[in-house]
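Course assignment 3, question 2. Fill in each field.
Student: A.L.
Task: Predict the tertiary structure for the chain below.
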Amino acid sequence: MIHLETSLKEYNAAKAKDNTLDIFKCFETTSHKISPAWDTRDYVAVNPLFGLRHQKFINGINTIKASSGLELLPKSDYFNQKFIQGHITLRDLEEALKIFYSQNLNSSEIKITVKELIDFISNNRSEISEPNFKCISDVDSLKAKAMTKFTQQQVSKWAAAYFDETQAAWKIPTHKMGFYAWWKSLVIHDPEFAKISLNSKNYLKALPDTSNAALEILTDKIKTRKDLSAENLANYFYRLLLSVNGWTSYFKKFEFEAHRSNQQVSPIKPVSVLDLMLVRMSYDVCLLDEVEDSDLDDIFVSHNALDITTIKGYIWLLALESSYRRQLETAVLSHSREVDSNKSYEAQMVFCIDVRSEVVRRHLENHCERIQTLGFAGFFGLPIAIKGLGHAESDPQCPVLLNADLEIIETSKDNSEIINAKKLHYVDNVRRTKSITTAANAGFSFVETFGLSYIYKILKASMNLGQPNLDFVNLGLSKKEKSSLHFNLSKIDLVAKTNLAFGALNNMGLTKDFSPLVFLVGHGSESSNNPYAAALDCGACAGHNGYGNARFLAVILNDINVREQLKAKNIYLPEGTYFISAWHNTTKDQLIFSEPPIDNFEHSELFEKLKQQFNEALRHSQLERSKLLFVDQDLSHDALKSRLDEKAKDWSEIRPEWGLARNASFIVGRRSLTRGLDLKGRSFLHDYDASQDPDLAKLELIMTAPMIVTNWINMQYYASTIDPVNFGTGNKVLNNVMGGIGCIQGNASDLLIGLSEQSVRLNGEYFHEPLRLQVFIEAEVAAIQKIISKHKMVEELIHNNWLVVISIDPTTMKFSMI
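Answer field:
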C-alpha cells in the first residue's frame, strides 16, 4: 500500500496489483441510500429514508440508528400516553405482534409477550445514542475537540458558498467546476483547514483534482492503517454522508433530476454526492495522524443486528397503526352509502387529494346538496412548467417523479412589455437595496441614508399591513395588472391540448354527466417572512401553488376546438358546461375564483348563487381548522376571516397553518365510501371506480404517482415529528437562510431539511401522529397485486413496509391487508 504523498503514477501501478476491494461499488451502494432534498423555492416533501426502501422499514431505521445514533421510532412515553388513554388497546398489541411475526419470519425465535411490551413503555429510552458505525472525527480522543461538528460546519460553509443564489454580496465564482475540484482549488487558502492537523495542507496538495482518483487515494490512506472489508468501507462512507445529511440530500437532488431526465450529469450544476463525500472525507483523513491504531477498531465495524429495543418500539408503532386502521374501517363500514347515480348536480368541484381539501369538501357537500366533489392529484395530470411574465426561469408544476415536458408562458392581454418592464424594475430595486444593506459599510451608510424611510415599513409589517410572500412573487404589480395576466398557448398545438384535456378528464373519472359549472380547484398557502412557504403549497405541483394548473386546464377545456376533438375520444362536453378555475387558499380557507367572463345569463346567476353557498360552507371549514390554531371560536364570521388574514400577513407568525400535519391515510375509491364521514382532515382522498377501470390503467397511475407522493409527504412529517433537529428544521425562530437555498440553525449547522418543530409539535409534544401512511384502495386484492408486481419501486415500498396497503373489495366491502 502507498501513502497519500505518493505520485498518482506510482499509485495506479500499485492499484493494478490490488483489486481485492471495489471502492466504487462500495460508494455506489452507499449513495443509493441517500434521499434527495430540494431548496426552499421548490420545497418538495420527500421521504428522507426513501433511499433505504430496499430494506424493510425496521431495518432501515436500524441502519439510521447504527450510522448516526438517532432513534426514528416514537418515544416510549408517547406510546404510554396512548395506552393509558385507551387509544391503543390490548387487542391492538396482539394484532401488532401477529403483524410483526408475519413481516419478519426470521424473528420467530424472538418471543415477546404483551406484558413485556407494556413494561417496555414505562422506561423512556433516549432518542440519541452513540452510532455503531463511526468516522475518524467521531473517535473518543477527538470528542473534546468536537471535530465532527467542526467538519460539518466547514463543509456547510463551502457548500453554501458554492450554491449561493444571489444572497452573498461577494460571490465566489465556480467557473462551472465540480464541487470537489472547486473546493480543492480554494481551501488551501482557508486558515480553518490548517487547524485540523499539522499535515493537512500537505495531504491536500497531494490529492488529484479528479474525483475518482481522489476517492482511491483517500481510501488507500486509511488502508495503510487498517484492513477494510467492503462492508466496513460502505458503513464508513454512509457515516460520513449522514454527518452532513442535509447537504448530502441536496447534492442528491441534482443526481435524481439528471437520472429522471436520462442524463449523466445535471445540466444545472456539475455536482455529485461523491464530490461532497470527498470534501467531508478529506477533513476526516487529515485526522488520521491524531488517532491511535486501537481507535480505528471502533470505527470500521460490520453489520449491526436488530436490538430488542428497536423491535419493541416497532411493535408499538404497529399497534398504534392498528388502532387507527380499526377505527377508520369501522367508520367507513358504518357510514358508507350509495350515491344516487341518476342525481343531477348544479356544480362539480375537483379538488386536490391534499388532506386539507377533505375538510373543505366535507363542508361543501354538507351545505350544498347539489354539489359533487371529486379528488384528484392537484397538478391535474399536467406535466407542465409555468414561466411567469418577466421570470427568468419556469417553475415545474408536477411531481418531481415526472419531467415537466411542456412550458407554459404567461403574458399580458394589455401592455405586456410595460408590465414586464415594471416587474424587472421591481427586481432591480430589490437587488439594489439589498446590495447596499449587505455592503461592508452598510452599518454606517445605509442607516444614515435610508434609515428613516424604513420606519414606515417596519411599523406597517408590525401592524400586519405588509404584503405576504405571494405578492412578492407577482413582483409589484397592481391588482388590475395582475388580472390581465394569462397563458399564451399559441405554441401548443390542438393535438397536444386535446391529449392533455382527455388525460385529465379520463383519469379523474369525469367523462360524462357534466354539470353546468365545473370548478377546477388548485391550492396554495399564504404566509409572510416564511422561507419554508413552499412546504405549505401543493405537493403534487413540486411545492408550488396549484392554481396555475387549474387555470391552464380550464382554458383548454373551454376551447371549442378541443371539445370537438374530444368527441373522437368518446367525451362529449355539453355546450352548457363551463369550466372555472379556482384557488383554495389553505391558510385562510377561502376560495378565490378566476372570475371568468361568463356570457350565459343562467351560468352567471348560478355562479353567484353558488358563491353564497360556498361562503357558508367555508365558514364552517374555517371554524374547524381555527380550533387547532387556538383562534377564538366566539368571533363573528368577519372577525374570524380578519384573524386568518392577519396570520397570513404577520411577519412574526410561526404557524400560519398546520399544513398536512396529522395526515394518516390515503383513501382511493368511490366518494360513496366516505361522503358524510368526518375524517378530521387526516385523509388524502382520490376518486376511483374499479368498475370503470377494466385494464387497471387508472389504478396503476394512482399507485405509481399519487401514492408515492403521499408516502413522501407522510414520511417527511413522520421523521420531522420524531426528530425535528436532525430530520426537520428545528425551531423555526432560530433558522437563518443560507445561500438563498435553505436554512441553517443559528449561525452554523448542516443544511436543514424537513419541517420545523412548529409544523409538527405543540408545546414540545407530538401534534402530528407519527404513523406510516395507511393506503385503502377500493379494488380487489388481485388487481392491487398485479400493479405491485409490475413496478419495483411500488413493490419495495409495500413489501418492505414503508406504507401499509389495505384492499376494500368493491362488492363485499371486505378489508384485507396486502
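Instructor remarks: The longest helix spans residues 308-335. DSSP finds 32 helices and 18 strands in the chain.
Grade: pending
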